[in-house]
Amino acid sequence: xxxxxxNGERRRAELADFLRRRRASITPEDVGLPNGGRRRTxxxxxxxxxxxxxxxxxxxxxxxxxxDVRASLDVLESISRxxxxxxxxxxxxxxxxxxxxxxxxxxxxEALHLPVTQEPGRFRVRxxxxxxxxVLGRRWDYLAWNRAMCALLGDLGSLxxxxxxxxxxxxxxxxxxxxxxxxxxxxxxxxxxFRADSARHLGDAEFxxxxxxxxxxxxxxxxEWKRHEVARAGEGRKEMNHPVAGRLVFEHAVFTPAEASxxxxxxxxxxxxxxxxxKLAALMEDVAHRAA
Length: 292
Description:
Elements: H1 4-24, H2 46-53, H3 57-64, H4 73-82, H5 87-98, E1 116-119, E2 122-125, E3 132-136, E4 142-145, H6 147-153, H7 166-172, H8 174-179, H9 183-198, H10 205-217, H11 219-226, E5 236-242, E6 246-255, E7 264-270, H12 276-291
Antiparallel strand pairs: 1-2, 3-4, 3-7, 5-6, 6-7
Helix pairs in contact: 2-3, 2-4, 4-5, 6-12, 9-11, 10-11
């Protein structure tokens, strides 16, 4: 296990990077301040953030420099308002600013805590028919998946266990780049969501190994990671260009069980557009026929 000091240093570095990048994304006009002429760097000055948050400029500078200074929840809330953070960004800020007061949980073997009926290597979502679905663990590893997902993305069971990770396959599997029509946009959002989750596991060796492997192997991931953007998981619409079925359209939703907050069930519901339900049924029938 990493030492408490190492975890504290990592937390402070993450907090400093996040603050610098959010400060650089805001103009004086955004917060009602005069521009003050040409600036050497984009965004607000540190002194302006400190003024807006009602804290000392030197103290705020130390915070951005990653020094070992403590911030109360009230102060973090004030900085959040000064930087016009979203709800997801505010949560991220408070988490990074408080992590040294929350000891890390010890690594435990993940077990499913979701309303699924398991089969060998797969599961069936009760009452959901052929909907494409999968379960992600704390590190976004695939813990379970159903037959509809195999029909769309291939059988994860045929991959080495170390490769069964949602983020890794999004960036490293060429087929997924071709499958998702909005791959570039969805990549930015995916990394923002993953970044928010990773902050809860700073110092976790397995998380760190995955992040370093992605940064080394994928220039796209590395670029998005450097933005230090964060977002929350939620509902949305997904379009796919399947090599056999053609255009497919889904509504997707994410469910988190109270018993295992680090796990999530991701459910893709086919919509009538582009005859998606019939196309998905045909794909599943073909997969079952070839497996027989």
